[in-house]
Amino acid sequence: VSGDGRLSRRRMEQAGDALEEVLSKALSQRSLTLGVYEAAKLLNVDPDNVVLCLLAAEEEEAGDAALQIHFTLLRAFCCENDINILRVSNPARLAQLLLPAAGPDPPADLHCVLVTNPQASQWKDPALSQLMCFCRESRYLDQWVPVINLPER
């Protein structure tokens, strides 16, 4: 944490790398839920298995009132259920990571991505633990939805 109360660039970069690792593992374990509506359905029936919620929108979508309402509701639900939540600043990179595995019919909506925890062993995942720490540090600084940048490859 820097002197001005923000997380250092290095911490942000480490969190970005950790997020990429968590997403690739979750993809291989089929423990991702993609899309605002699918996420809302899962959060409604099984919030205890959700370990991370990602919100992603392009800058030009900032004026999309419906999407912003969904984001507000998802944030509130995650806070209420102690689910860590991050905002991805580069949705195009998120799509690059997730869509190759989506097959011939990629989901149109990557505005919300949930990572679920199919086995308790995943909690021992160092990348996931690192992200949890990043979220906790951010909350201490009153950044309830920290913004994270996925590294370009």
Automatic annotation (TrEMBL):
* GO cellular component terms, A-Z: cytoplasm; nucleus
InterPro entries cross-referenced by the UniProt entry: GADD45 (IPR024824), Ribosomal_eL30-like_sf (IPR029064), Ribosomal_eL8/eL30/eS12/Gad45 (IPR004038)
Domain Ribosomal protein eL8/eL30/eS12/Gadd45 positions: 17-98
A single GO BP term for this record reads: regulation of cell cycle
Q: Which domain of life is it from?
A: Eukaryota
Tell me, what's a Pfam family for it? Ribosomal_L7Ae
Q: Localized where?
A: Nucleus
User: What are the record keywords, sorted?
Assistant: Cell cycle, DNA damage, Growth arrest, Nucleus, Phosphoprotein
Can you tell me which family this protein belongs to? Belongs to the GADD45 family.
Q: What is the protein name given in its UniProt record?
A: Growth arrest and DNA damage-inducible protein GADD45 alpha
